[in-house]
Automatic annotation (TrEMBL):
Organism: Sulfitobacter alexandrii
N6-(pyridoxal phosphate)lysine: residues bearing it: K217
UniProt-recorded name of the protein: Aromatic amino acid beta-eliminating lyase/threonine aldolase domain-containing protein
Keyword field: Lyase, Pyridoxal phosphate
Family: Belongs to the threonine aldolase family.
This protein's GO CC annotations: cytosol
Tagged with keyword Repeat: no
Superkingdom as given in the UniProt entry: Bacteria
């Protein structure tokens, strides 16, 4: 698929705002149209079951559950494992903490302890200092909400699509086990991490109790997300999914898109990564400040030096010229690559950006 063309001006649009902006391909739509369906409330939708089985197999977990969104996946995973009144270690820049309407507090009843995670990673020393293991004879503190959960994000969107690798996740698993914590992974872009690290996705989720991932981002499905973990966890999650209005009926139509995405689109994620790398190198050459070696997946964080002008003004001119990114945060612009942008599009977009940057005066 190539970038769309504007009707009026015949100008190309390069949409780097998010990898959620892909449209289902004709092949995916055909699969959806011919999906066998049933009532999933009665667990009689074969397409839903097939997607849940495929997910459990790919991730090496006992069972999986289709949910409406990554947000619902995180909410349901956490609510079904951690009783309210507890506290959680989260990344201060995580989607869960910043971009999910505060469900951890409002629906799960959980107090968040947010730590900074440069490059996507907690400082393990800092965590150990925060969550000291009490001596066996010490009386229980009645002051603090008991710590019961640690969440990671893989890849970490807010930190530039950085990957958490197996050794690091295993360290966190030890930390969690020593303190009897539930370990949850927001793996909205889990498969980007697996591809970038050249590991089996099941290796990355082996240390966690629960994981959620999005079908609607790099995988290119029109919606939906999956959660996976133990059979007991998924049974409990089914209950909480129902409570938050996520129980569905002939939803196999959606599951068919997800199944297609896992079978067909997973294998092209590496193209998004090489396109992101090419974009980063191109932006670097144009004078943007980018740590090119930190571009591991499909997200490029580009910082605009003063010489290249005012961020809001460049953003506006980029938009008018067909290069779409979200409004800048400070002097940072985020570019996300996806299946709607091929390598020619990256080159063409860089030409547009180059013209704007050079013609700034
Ligand atoms: C997009 C995203 C989510 C939420 O997914 P939705 O399907 O948009 O609700 C959760 N976590 C991360 C890291 C994301 O990027």
């Amino acid at each position: 698929m190539v970038a769309q063309v504007l009707d009026a001006s015949n100008e190309q649009i390069f949409d780097f705002r998010s990898d959620t902006l892909t449209s289902p391909s004709d092949a995916m739509r055909k699969r959806m149209a011919s999906a066998e369906v049933g009532d999933d409330f009665y667990r009689e939708d074969p397409s839903i079951r097939a997607l849940e089985d495929l997910t459990a197999t790919i991730l090496g977990k006992e069972d999986a559950l289709f949910v409406l969104s990554g947000t619902m996946g995180n909410l349901v995973s956490i609510r079904s494992q951690v009783p309210s009144g507890h506290s959680a270690i989260v990344s201060a820049t995580s989607h869960l903490h910043v971009n999910e309407t505060g469900h951890l507090a409002s629906i799960c009843g959980i107090t968040s302890q947010a730590f900074s995670t440069p490059g996507g990673k907690f400082d393990l020393g800092e965590l150990m200092n925060f969550a000291k293991i009490p001596s066996p004879n010490a009386p229980r503190s009645v002051l603090t909400p008991p710590l019961k959960l640690i969440c990671v994000e893989n890849t970490h969107n807010g930190e530039g699509g950085r990957c958490l690798d197996k050794p690091y996740l295993n360290q966190l698993k030890r930390f969690a086990d020593e303190r009897d914590l539930i370990f949850h992974m927001d793996g909205a872009r889990l498969f980007n991490a697996a591809v970038a690290l050249s590991v089996d996705p099941s290796d990355l989720v082996a240390p966690v109790d629960s994981v959620s991932f999005c079908l609607s981002k790099g995988l290119g499905a029109p919606g939906g997300a999956m959660i996976a973990g133990s059979r007991d966890f998924i049974e409990e999650a089914r209950h909480w999914r129902q409570m938050v209005g996520g129980g569905m009926r002939q939803s196999g139509i959606m599951a068919a898109a997800g199944h297609f995405a896992l079978k067909e689109n997973l294998k092209r994620l590496h193209e998004d990564h090489s396109n992101a790398k090419a974009l980063a190198l191109g932006l670097d050459a144009l004078g943007f400040e980018i740590a090119v070696e930190t571009v591991e997946t499909n997200i490029v964080m580009a910082f605009l030096p003063k010489e290249l002008g005012e961020p809001a003004s460049l953003h506006k001119r980029l938009y008018q010229s067909g290069v779409r990114v979200l409004p800048p945060k400070g002097n940072r612009l985020r570019f996300v690559t996806h299946m709607g942008l091929n390598s020619d599009d990256i080159e063409a977009a860089l030409k547009v950006i180059g013209r704007l940057v050079e013609g700034r005066s």
